Amino acid sequence: MELRSVTLSRWARGTLLGPMVTIWILITLAAGTESLDALADWVGLAGRFTDEWWLAMLLGSFWASTLAVALVAVDVALLRSKFRALPTGIRCWFGGLLSPFVVAVWQIALPKPSSIPMLVGLTAATFVLSALSVRVLFGRRP
Hints:
Elements lengths: L1 H31 L4 H7 L5 H32 L8 H21 L6 H23 L4
Helix pairs in contact: 1-3, 1-4, 3-5, 4-5
């Protein structure tokens, strides 16, 4: 039983924290280069660096947690179908850290939405497709 809980915790850490760490680093780098001005202007916080950074971290954390939920759902589906085992160690961390970039690739590859329902559907599709891509690429066979 001890071995199973260690494997489960190694999987959970990389799966849940990987997307968060990437997004937090990218937001902090963007804040350092003052690339958050458009976001700050959109919500009315122009000229307030710390407010811009906190707002971006809040929205980015929500986005990354949604991606983490998609990774968990895909992992459970792949495990249940016996197509892939739970990734652990460096494979899990690398897949989790890379997954936000894979979402960006899928958003470029899929067609542009023309309506709000299509926007919601394509956004959900990019999360699921990126999680599936990362897990198939970096996962291990059972």
